[in-house]
Amino acid sequence: MRFRTTEAIFAVAVCLVGTASAFPAFNTPNSVDASGNICPLLARPGLTCPRLCVRNFDDCPEALQPDSCPSGKQLCDDGTCQISCAGIENPCLCGMTAADVTTVYKACPAYAPTVTVQQYDPNIKDRQLEEACASEWKLDGNSTIGEWSADATDAIIWDVCPTPQEPRMTFVESYCVAFYAIIGAELVLYLLWHLYKSIRERNAHLLHQLCSPLPTTLVSAGESDKDSSSGAGDAKAAITQSDEVVGDEDAMLLRGFDSNKAGAALYYLALASTAGWIVLLSVIVADYYGDVKGHVAYGMLANSDTSMAVFIFVWHLGGIWMITMLACMSRIRNYFRIACPLARARVVQVEERRDEVVLMEGTHNRLTLLASRVRAALISRFGLNIAIESCPVQKAKVDDGVVSFIEHHCTRYVLGEHSGKFQCNSFALGSTHKELLHNRKGLSSSEAAGRAAQLGENFIRVAVPLFPVAMLQEVFSYFYLYQMMCMYVWFYFNYYKMALVQFGVIIVSAFIKVAIRLRSEHKIKSLAEHRSTCRVRRDHVWADLDTADLVPGDVVAVESGMEIMCDGCVLRGEIVVDESSLTGEAMPVRKLPLKDDNNIVFDADSGKMYSVYAGTRVLQCSSAAEGEDGTEILVLRTRTATDKGKLIQRILFPAKYSFVFDEQLPVALLLLLLYGGLGFALTIWLMGHDVTSWFYGVFVISEIMSPLLPAALVVGQSVAAQRLRRQRIYCVDLPRIIMAGKVRVFCFDKTGTLTKEGLEYFAVQQIDGAGRFEPEEIKMSHLPDATQVGFAACHAVTAVHGDLIGNPVDVEQFRATGWELGSEPHQGALEPAEASSLWLDTIVSPQGRRVHVIKRFEFVHARQSMSVAVLDTETGHVHVFVKGSFERLKRMAAADSVPADYDAVTARWAKEGCYVLALAHRDLGRVDDLQAVARMPREELEAQCSLVSLLLFRNQLKHDTETAIAELKDGDTRTVMITGDNALTGVYIARQCGMVGAGARVLLGDIEQADAKGGAQLVWRDTETDIEHGADELSGHELAVTAAAFDHLVATQTIRQLLLDIRIFARMTPHGKVQCVNLHMERAVTAMCGDGGNDCGALRAAHVGIALSDSEASIVSPFSSSNRSVRSCVALLREGRAGLATSLAGYKFLINYATTMSMLEIVQFYFSVIVPQAVWIMVDSFIVVGLCIAVTQAQTARRLAPSRPTARLIGVHTLASIWGQTVINYAFLFGIMGLLFRQSWFRCHEFDSRDIDTSLWWLLGDNFEAEVISIVCLFQFVNGAAVYNFGYRYRRTWLTNYILVVLYCGFMAAISVLTLANPNRFGCLFRINCGDPDSLVGLGYSRPTWSISEYNSPNGNNVLPHRFRWTLWALCVVNIVLCLAYERLVVLGPAGRFAKRWWARQHASSSRKKLYLKP
Q1: What is the per-residue pLDDT for 357?
Q2: Cβ distance 385 to 375 under 8 Å?
Q3: pLDDT digits over 803-818, tens only?
Q4: What is the pTM of this model?
Q5: Beta-carbon count within 10 A of 1029 CB
């Protein structure tokens, strides 16, 4: 019963799609002439006569009498002479036998010449042809020629056999039964599996786990833990959860699954079914060409109508199946597994929310808002923002058991032995310097194995697929499924030549995208995957190990030149490292050993000077004392727990930014499909509602969405990346280039970014014992001894191969003193005993005076100061010096040492652009126990210091900063300074570089005092006059804030109201810079530029970050520039804007192609014609591909324009451009076709397809209609590239795009030749202005010497009259000019600018300030 039902449904579907006539909805050709008179019936030459059948050959007309057969041959019934007539088929039997007919006729020989039918009427063409042939053979009117039938008895009959009844399918053929059985069995099996799975998983909701991506810290339980493995998870270690709280929306959902043989079989059956649908479609296509059964067309599916109906039926079912498989791709494998507790799972499904950060520009149009709401609803309803990954459960052996784990995003999650849950682990080795030093003996092999089992190998594997695999990944998408289904229609409908061309275009498009993707991934792989051999202390002995085997707690020997493969801290000796590839910091950084002090907390900020980081290279290292082991570091973090690992992880699995470009693309594609649906409906109507019209309708839809569209949106980014690389600007995230084209706010660090790398020493202003300033002194040798010692010792400078290394300010300060670093051995705090072992540095004056540094507290951003304790060998006194920001030292120094005019003097120096530091001093006198000083906490050591001097540096701008800032401002980009320096210095630099106008007043916000309630009070003062201003007087002024004021504004939630008025953010910590950038990102697309020192976080946080780094492969931000110039920011924005404009131009060109092509197809279907094959091939193979690539080669504008290119695919500007061109092209095509129908030479010579099978489309192009449509649309296709390649403001004039100019001129010349030239080999290739040789000779042209396929036209040619050719060419030129003028003068020109200003005025509102950014 089920079989009969299926058969009936299938048969009904075939009948529904297979019944109708194949005649256009309306088009009566050759009805009236140009004057409205009824067309006379014209002569139809070149017709072939049917054969005659006679009882005896003597009855054949004289013209058909058979010739006498030569000796040895006999005349057979088919009218030919053969040696033997055995086996010769008699055509007059029409496939029957002699016994089946009343009279056995013989066939007269075929008549070779053709005849002409006068007043040819397609409705009675057969009778007219017979009469013409009878007349040609001089048969008199008394001769009756009968029609063929099995019972015919006439003397002469026409050999026109009756059309045999087409074979019909019964739909009970064996292959149909097999199809029903397979589909039915699959449905039953899937239903049974679903029921079985539902029963087994009835409590599955209780089995999942919410897992935090943050690590759980495993703390060793004292020294006893050193003797046992911690590899067994939570059984052997105390567990401390991360301090950070993760909400449910940030947690990962883990579901465990166990394998099932039946489920696995059904999964592979589903995959086989997908392949089966593809194979089935291929078999139906092959059957169309007769390659399935007996080399007979439709040998399997009986006839054409049934074949087309079955193809359409299978095409739809197969499409639905494959869409479903694509939609469920990430979940389908686990659907065929059984959910189980995580402890028993073989596979864990990790579900993680990956919400997009949508960056829309300014306001939204209603269509975009509607689309966004619909999209958000769909995402919420179907969980489209949930990223799913299946991770196999793996096992690792440890001494006391087995550890189960999964690897997700390069991080290991271990199954707790008792909890039964997965967790990401880390190991805490100590929180103070002394606790960390307790780990200096290293690990045992069993400890290391246990920790390795918990954390995984210290190596981030970046899986870059092979090219074939990447191609498969690329094509497994809805877009390529759409293209594949269209290709099947083309292959089936004998459109295989164009299908092969289109297939080639699809492959090229996919190839380009995959090549760009793999190149980027290989670059990331080269940055991430590094391993080498190092010396590690294991089991109390040194061993050479692979760096992949490192775990926290290992002690590693460091050598000069090696690359650090972990995050760690220095246990012994000193290290100078190059951190440029990680942070962008150009200057080598000195790293010091830990102190043997339990009071010093080791954290991310204060521990920076003692820490080394993965990805950095050791330039120099030295041991603490002669005879001791070399420099050693303690491994703290490995793999993705390192700073480099986190950066790589962010690159490999980035937060998804949905730019307005990406947000509107689905809407644009949906609109295109709706447009295609309209074209499909029109085609069905115009082509006669039959099954053939369905194929033509699919042709329209398939041309709407070019396979080049994905590549066109990517190639522009790749071209921009290559141009940036030539300017030494490197990109590791291509989509950010497009984002750079929309940057509205550009934030800059000051020192090393806007200003030169190193500060220039200027002077010292001493403070006397009475607390008064003395005149500034340039030569440090003229300063008091204590001050000289302070400046010579209060720094962290070291020497590498004779070069001073350290903070640039410290280096410049030390050079200014004229002192030198001594050669005594350096020693950390690992060894007690003699006093000399406490010397961290020895400093020698030009006169030979020596001082020893016995204590140093490094610079900490939170304290804005550093300090040292030094032993003066001449006096035996111990001196304490504190150096830092003048604001910080004012607060901490003894009040009586601070001059009364301290604020005024420091402000004056800052206003003059000086970088101002202060120095405080305290004399501890003679100290017998130097170790007591070394153990002294920082607060005690720095207490009661007295201010002794100000240290002044000149902060010079880079030579090109001013011009770069000016160009950015001219380019409508707001420039902002975020600096750790003093606010007044920032104001001075901002004025110098033009960030603040010369005459602009700057109001500085700072926290000056507490109000009556003890809270902070924000005060705004003019930086020039020091006059206080109220909060209501800020409008119209440039604002600057200190870090304290910024924090106050954030705390009071008023920062957003003032954010876009604040130009300078001063004294900002690294965290404050990130916070400031994030606030700007809420309002506009924001870029950040810095040198990678303390602004790494801000560079990573910004939409577009560019690090000025000497390293080509810096991963601190999406962009890095080895130019170390702010000009790189200008270049980035220029290329970003050009790349965005180019991508949009490519998009518009392909949409213009789609609208023009759909217009061409609808118009040709209206006239029941098809343009010649060669035209299709030229358009899809050469014009579209060549010009689409050429459009991406447009040169970048030399200067930034005062606006940004639109990124809206469905914005007013874009739609006006696309549809304006479409309307103009439509108007000219319709107008020219109307002009054609007014030509007297054309009317009554129109193409009539009533006697041609419309499924044989290649026979429908030899006519005037198809010729004129081809010429007009060819001009329009080519012109689209020039229209959308206008440089406007973001690219140079299109004349500089030499590839486009050459292709454009070449194509235009070729089409002009096709239009204007007399019949020639080139034109005949395209079936334009050509015809049959005899017809051309009849028109007065010489006989062609080349081969011409016979024309399928009553006229025998489609040669246009000379006058009409020039008229047609002139109209096409006018079409070209109007399209170019519309784009240049209306869309991009004054009309467009006027409309934009008018729109802005009409829609101005109180929220305008939110959108307006002052450059």
Answers
A1: 65
A2: no
A3: 787 777 888 899 999 9
A4: 0.77
A5: 17
